[in-house]
Design brief:
The protein has 9 helices and 9 strands. It has helices at 26-29, 32-35, 38-43, 45-61, 66-73, 90-94, 116-119, 159-168, 219-233, and strands spanning 2-7, 79-84, 99-101, 104-111, 126-127, 145-149, 171-175, 196-200, 212-215. It is α/β, with parallel strands linked by helices. Helix content is 31%, strand content 19%. The strands form 2 sheets. Strands 3-2-1-7-8-9 form a 6-stranded parallel beta sheet, sandwiched between helices. The chain has 2 domains: 1-17 and 65-103 and 156-236, 3-Layer(aba) Sandwich (Rossmann fold), CATH 3.40.50; 18-61 and 107-149, SIR2/SIRT2 'Small Domain' (2-Layer Sandwich). Adenosine-5-diphosphoribose binds at residues 8-10, 13-14, 19-22, 25, 32, 85, 103, 176-178, 180-181, 200-203, 218-219.
Amino acid sequence: MKIAVLTGAGVSAESGLSTYRDNNGLWDNYDPMEVASIEGWYKNRKLVLDFYNSMRAKLRDVRPNDAHIAISRLEERAETTVITQNVDDLHERAGSTRVIHLHGEATKVRPENGVYDDTFSEREVIDVGYDAVSLGDKAPNGSQLRPHIVFFGEAVPKLGIAADVVSEADIVLIVGTSLQVYPAASLYSYARPDAGIYLIDPADMRLPDRRIVHIRAVATEGMKQFVKHIWSDNQQ
Ligand code: APR
């Protein structure tokens, strides 16, 4: 059995990390065009570096929650790939071994003028863990280190492989995303016609596709219901 798990900020909410758009989310307190866009980067690199420095530092103090752990344990019974919009490292820390970060990773940086710009090769990407990066911190090629994040206004290089994973899945599970940011939000639509599609979210969401089974719960609770449902289905 193959499971594709599409996650957003909601899966990390119970670990204490802010979501972006619901109750006092990050975008209620910061302008994404200033701190998370390519124009914002060129306008004020320090503001962007500080934003991701504070996000990175928070990761040192939080832990994966039971939803991350339940998602990693799906690997015990199914070929599971996590496709996350999140830039935190909580899926990896929970034990997931196949994680695709559509929007980049907060713990990584790369030269602002490097090979990635043309080829998306990650060979110049540096893992800085939870440490801060400042203006003047240069890459080996001499250019300023920038967050290894897909800024608004930039391409999403891993979209193709993510779509392939979803198109081969028997089950597509969506956890904790408002499905408002494209192209990530359209990924579920690559599901095969015979695939099961489940969405875990406490909000009363307008479901974009009537095939989607909405488990209206927070991620930790919803994962218990999801696991019970799919493994009991597969015992019959
Ligand atoms: N469990 C599950 N879902 C939750 C929980 C929870 N405990 N708390 C909140 N949610 C849900 C909200 O109802 C909402 O649908 O998580 C979703 C969070 O939505 P957003 O804040 O929009 O986050 P996300 O969908 O991940 O944003 C996508 O937007 O700004 C960009 O790059 C950024 O990756 C991000 C993208």
